[in-house]
Amino acid sequence: MNPLDYLRTLLRQFLLTAMIALRALRRNKLRSSLTALGIIIGVASVVAMVALGNGAQARIESQISSLGQNLLTIFAGSRRAGGVNSGLGSASALTLEDADAIRREVPDVVAVSPEDTTSAQAIANGRNWSTTIAGEAPEYLEITDWKLADGSMFTARDVRSAAKVAVIGSETAHELFGPLNPVGQTVRVKNMPFVIIGLLESKGTGMGGMNQDDRIIVPFTTAMRLLTGDKYLRSVSVQISGADRMDAAEQQITSLLRQRHRLTAGRDNDFSIFNQKQIADTVSSVTTIITLLLGAIGGISLLVGGIGIMNIMLVSVTERTREIGIRIAVGAQPADILLQFLIEAITLSLLGGTIGVLLGVGASDLVGRLTNFVPIVSTGSIILAFGVSCAVGVFFGFYPARKAALLNPIDALRYE
Fold this sequence. Notes:
Elements: H1 3-27, H2 29-65, E1 71-76, E2 80-81, E3 84-85, H3 96-105, E4 109-124, E5 127-136, H4 140-143, E6 148-151, H5 156-160, E7 165-168, H6 170-177, E8 186-189, E9 192-200, E10 215-219, H7 220-228, E11 235-240, H8 246-260, E12 271-275, H9 276-319, H10 321-329, H11 334-370, H12 379-405, H13 409-414
Parallel strand pairs: 5-10, 7-9
Antiparallel strand pairs: 1-11, 1-12, 2-3, 4-5, 4-8, 4-11, 6-9, 7-10, 8-9
């Protein structure tokens, strides 16, 4: 027999065995459906759970990146007085001179924005709105990677003169001016008129659920002299030249501020530095672990489904012992019997895997439509879940199939 004829014979035998296996599954539709249900639930759980984990990770990373690129934020505070932590932004520790020193003496610093913030009622166009008033430097938009939808940012000259100019967030603009373009309009804050020279693009929700678009930005000198009366800064935003220089820059800033604040060895810092890269790395590792745990929960469902397949296949072998004996008696080889039962198990897994993937993707899409949370279905999770379901079918189907193939035909024919 030439190789081509041999391959044709093998293919014919395989197709015949496959038809017998599928016929056996059709004879027990309810049992087959219930057996596949375990795989369906397992695969759907893996796809949906991993999609939820990926969506959570992407959302948190987006919120962190919306703060800016290569950002260090220095907060006044975390100084203990009488054993009590005064909290971030509450201690008199950061000065304008500190911000200038950081800009001059730390080589990796690209831009610095001293910050002084408060809350106040803004009045314009016959409306009033309670919002955040943020005193910043002209470099603030560059540091936070924030674009203007219209107008322009105030200048260093405006900072030096403590000019009454403002850049307004999209949410605040909507509440005060509705559909009108706020650029060129006047808004009153604490009975002082500010000319709006710029409109910020929308950034949405930031870390901690804060609405970043609900704010008015003014020169930090204007905020300190006219609005808050503060002599000290609440915080300082610092942009570093590269992500690989973040840790080194943080150490240099810490040493510089400790020296300027005359903090001797053993004394706690009277400031705190939030490193965006460290926060992002920590959050990423935590969300990755959560995603793996969610996937593992779905994997347990897959394992249970595989055990269900093995149980049903063992029952099937017992019920069809006489049939197996007849097939062997008329010339079927043990390999044919093994292949038949393997095909049955794999078919159940493939069917369950396909339906499970569709259900998992559908459930993720439904969550996205019903909530403002967007799950992310990854191709990798689909391939993994589907591949594992097939492997489960082979693994848990092999033992019953091998048991059927090793049956003694005489004993099988006698079986009732």
